[in-house]
Amino acid sequence: CLQAHTSQSDWAPDATASLWKEIGDPTAEYPEWSQPLGAFDAYAIGAKVSHNGKHWTSTVDNNVWEPGVYGWEEAS
């Protein structure tokens, strides 16, 4: 909610859009890493994943390595 309002409980996001801001799902930007099976599903350079409680960005193209081993940079 962009503006506090306790007196109007019916001010829902669909009724008063100017008072609300959508917050994206944090897991959508960093989906959980899964082991690629081959070149057809390898991670591209710049791909973002989460793995072992950390966020990672691929630094190489066709990345099939586990984050933290090779080809990934931990996001700050």
From TrEMBL:
> Which N-terminal stretch is annotated as signal sequence?
none
The UniProt transmembrane annotation reads none
A GO molecular-function annotation: carbohydrate binding
- Per its UniProt record, what SUPFAM superfamilies does this chain match? Carbohydrate binding domain (SSF51055)
Any one GO CC term of this protein is: extracellular region
What GO terms describe the biological role, i.e. biological process, of this protein?
carbohydrate metabolic process
What the entry lists under InterPro entries is as follows: CBM_sf_5/12 (IPR036573)
Q: Tell me what this protein is called.
A: Chitinase
Organism (species): Candidatus Faeciplasma gallinarum
